[in-house]
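Homework help thread (please don't just give me the answer)

Our assignment gives two proteins as sequence + structure token strings and asks us to describe the second one. The first is just a warm-up. Here they are:
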Amino acid sequence: MIKELLGTGAFSEVRLCEHRETGQAYAVKIIDKKALKGKEDSLENEIRVLKRFSARRNEDDADKTWFTHPNIVQLFETYEDKLKVYLIMELVTGGELFDRIVEKGSYTEKDASYLIRQVLEAVDYMHEQGVVHRDLKPENLLYYSPSEDSKIMISDFGLSKMEDSGFMATACGTPGYVGRWEKVMLLQIFLKFFFPPKPV
């Protein structure tokens, strides 16, 4: 059962949804096929990457290896009709890192290091599995819950690539180099937001 709007993107919207029988809450990403025309490969790639980091859901998947991580949003199911594609995903309710940075104004070194460590461990794990996110920024890092000590979650894999997809070298250079560069860029972003230069 699809409920209220949680957020919007260029080709999609995210809504709260609820399992009719169990009452379990999820997030459903609803992608407009018409708006996505010509970029279908991007959606297929996002689903493929998300499935790589999502838990096995049924016995038919028993022969597959899954690589879940506590700081990577999981995909549970996919559906589609003539007009839209529906991705049933793990519900996170704490909002974007960007919004919390604006709200808090500043982070202590302890809080910042705790958050940065979570993200870098998740990114390192993705790289070990041959996945590069390619769009890491505070808007794509979500807090799992509104609590102050909530863990952080990596989301939005629309631009990500897998080492075995055949696209990595063409689009981004060699996988190892891209992986290291992604972490360097991420650290630069964190330093800019968490430890801005003090006025002279």
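The one we have to describe:
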Amino acid sequence: MDIKILIIDDHQLYIEGLKAIFPQLLPNAEVLSVNHIENLDELNQDLDMILLDLRMPNGGAVAVLDYLKTNRLTIPVLIVSASEHSSDIKLVFEHGAMGYLPKTASSDDLLEAIKTIQNGDKYIPEQWDKFISSENQSVILNINGQQIRLSPRLYETLQLIDKGFSNKEISTILGISSHTVSDYVKVLFQRLDTNSRTELIHTARALNLFKFQ
């Protein structure tokens, strides 16, 4: 998986530990890191994901999430925190986080979280599902006897494909990287059991997916 990740954490030892496992976890990943959040203006849409500590000096996860939203930077954020309090989990999802992972999690859990978010879905350990409000969860549509699970971001991508936009154009419109758009398109192909954009749109229209816009 080609992916560009930024780690934001004020514990340098933890950053170094995370960076050390990525060559085995995701060999093609480009991993950057900072141990402060003073230079938020440096964040840009070239990033595919941010791994963000919950609490840091001079601000925290909520400040970063709000900055991204205010500046229309739709970079997926995975919160990686020592906190397992329900109030913290609820708070970051309310402010736009795409995932939450405890720092006690395994490297396999981290990989699952990254892949889930790259597929356009939200990630949270199963035991914490109850902490996510219904509007933050992916939608499961029962259409013509079929269950199709699409996140709001996958919906947006599908709608833009239907309007004839290329991956590059979708990247610009949604403020995300071309790699992320490509990943979303692959997920849509898989979810709707198709192999091309033409077949994807034909199937989506046949299933009346666009009536949910």
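TA reply:
I won't write it for you, but here's a hint about the kind of observation we're looking for: Strands lie at 3-8, 29-34, 49-52, 55-56, 59-60, 77-81, 99-102, 139-143, 146-150.
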